[in-house]
Amino acid sequence: MFPRLVVYSLVLLASLSRLDHGPSAGIASQPALEGEEYVYEVSWTWFKLGTIRLKTLPGCRAVAHIESYPGLPFVDLHSIHSTQMDSSCYSKGSYSLEKKDGVWWALRYINEPGGKSVAVEETFQTSPDSIPYKHSIIDTIVIPTSDFVDGLSIAYFPRRFIHSEKTVTVPTILYGKLGQTSFHFMGDHTTESIDALDDPVRVVSVEGNTTVEGIYGMTGEFKGWFSDDSAAVPIKGKLKVLIGNVTVELIQWHRSGWNPPTQ
Question: Which residue has the higher pLDDT, 116 or 109?
Answer without folding.
Answer: 109
